[in-house]
Design a protein that fits this description.
By secondary structure, the protein is an alpha/beta fold. About 25% of the residues lie in helices and about 25% in strands. It contains 20 helices and 40 strands. The longest helix is centred in the C-terminal third of the chain and has 18 residues, at about 565-580. The chain is globular, with a radius of gyration of 28 Å. It starts with 11 loop residues before the first helix and ends with a helix.
Length: about 775
Amino acid sequence: MVNPFLLGMKSCRTSVFAVLSVIIIINGLSTFVVQAGVESKVHIVYLGEKQHDDPEFVTESHHRMLWSLLGSKEDAHNSMVHSYRHGFSGFAAKLTKPQAKKIADLPEVVHVTPDSFYELETTRTWDYLGLSVANPKNLLNDTNMGEEVIIGVVDSGVWPESEVFNDNGIGPVPSHWKGGCESGENFTSSHCNKKLIGAKYFINGFLATHERFNSTESLDFISPRDHSGHGTHVATIAGGSPLPNISYKGLAGGTVRGGALRARIAMYKACWYLDNLDITTCSSADLLKAMDEAMHDGVDVLSLSIGYRLPYFSETDARAVIATGAFHAVLKGITVVCSGGNSGPAAQTVGNTAPWILTVAATTLDRSFPTPITLGNNKVILGQAMYTGPELGFTNLVYPENPGNSNESFFGDCELLFFNSNRTMAGKVVLCFTTSKRYTTVSNAVSYVKEAGGLGVIVARNPGDNLSPCEDDFPCVAVDYELGTDILFYIRSTGSPVVKIQPSKTLVGQPVGTKVADFSSRGPNSIEPAILKPDIAAPGVSILAATSTNKTFNDRGFIMASGTSMAAPVISGVVALLKALHRDWSPAAIRSAIVTTAWRTDPFGEHIFAEGSPRKLADPFDYGGGLVNPEKASKPGLVYDLGLEDYVLYMCSVGYNETSISQLVGKGTICSNPKPSVLDFNLPSITIPNLKEEVTITRTLTNVGPVESVYKVVIEPPIGVQVTVTPETLVFNSTTKRVSFKVRVSTKHKINTGYFFGSLTWSDSLHNVTIPLSVRTQLLQNYYDEN
């Protein structure tokens, strides 16, 4: 999107003067000698909006700045890790703390921050969301399945041999593509085609921090090739080509494909496997470089299934590199989609909360894997598993506990099974209980039982915990605590308890209900509570997609995985289709269309619950606007749009200083006094975290539907809150395309409350443009603020 508020780039002469000025200032500083033993670490030097269109010139200015600081051209070259020269200006370099402080004091520098590390977060999906290929009249076919759109994925790389990257029937590469494929270990440009049109890798930041990393011994590939399989999986979900007859050993069978199945994929590998820790990690310096390159290459959508651990950095913090890169991408018309994190169901855990990012929560599908457990008393209990092995006939069943007449110790906790003697578990199915949410708890319990000669495991646990297949197709079935207690009481009631376990089945559609996943991070936003996060929810539980072949449970290279990592690319695929249909829509307009048309029930009209303890009806802090509804999002009627001026007002409202804002956006900025209210930021939601008596909020709607339209307001007020909208009718025509309205919110509560939820809808009988209302009365806090 070309933004009319941006000032034109400075002339070459002005840029040269700026560079020379930096050199003079740095040379004027006292000579700095690096003492032996002072440690250099990677630091990101962020300079804001770039001041020249020539990337080579921008990079040269970065080298000159380093050269003047370090004293020689060679030292500057050796220190440089990355030059950010496309979407914005800055660089990553190895600096000591004193050097970082010296360069941070320069007026041209917005901020300097040490490198930090981020983590990765991971068939039926598209039919469930109403995007069936078989339907000739839907968003898929209206957009030629996203063929002219490019989805950039920043992740762990790509497995190019996967069948999901075939380019059968796909036309020429879009003309706006400027990227390419980078060769490296076991990867050449020939691995790319008209589907996988780009693949690059960024490792300098990672190597500068992990100096002992041995590239020859590492299992990872020093190239765009994927080791962990995470990047391949999320790329498949967003835009993979269709492949029929894919299943996990007969479960969840069908056609695997991406949302925008003809969209092009560009992979930017910035996450690397650490063999000694068995984790994949992403340097912030490398992430920022990947995003910078993606902006240059011409991607239309950026998808990042990557997050940081609590506590999070605000978008004005120098360490929030995803927020920084996303800001520049959004100003260039690129929608940035991020996972919300896997720290649920605790409140205030959602990440990637910058208001220009589209943040995604994870739900289940309308699919389950019931697994019959038959007890010796002929009672049948349905557990959940992904067991596809042979039926385990009636077998001895045990819960390891002291019967009261033994000196031996017994342990029925799943985490402690290894303390039991082998004879306790050998030849038996073992029941255990756990309160842990870690997947390793189940996998370790299975290992303990297998090593002891056991034949199966029944794990009683929180019903919302994630379901994963057990290795070697060992019988391991999950039940909730109630069912686990029923099994335990049966064991205690008989001298010879036995059990039969049958293979799992796939159940699709009703009566399986949709739920917000237990692991999905929840709001409210811990950085700025007035900004609703997450924005939207999408399926992210047991999603079948491609992976690298060394990680597969399927000889064709497919696995099931769960996480907001899997939900984010679902939204990226939807965004790609919307971008194909509405090339002129801004990222904010696309976000608004998705949020305001979302399902607040499942596609069958049933309530969506949120897993947790206890399970409850889902609210905006669980799923934002609701469950994504792609068809409705393509024709929203009205949108809550945002541009550069809106983002500047937001940064002023949360206290970003004027100098930093000016450098960030490339134009002089003066914040108003008094500063604007963050509540007036034109989001497709209203969240009031500290309502004392009443407040009036402004929103503006832009008509993207029929030119002559009349909308009337429908209000569902939160409990104990009065909501009044003025005017109650909005009239759009050929001369009036944008209309503002005011929302007066007042509380009837006399005490501090938690959040109550409602909604505000504008309807013309064809379109229902709905935003969530979230209001908390905080009388006591306001009392202390005033006194």
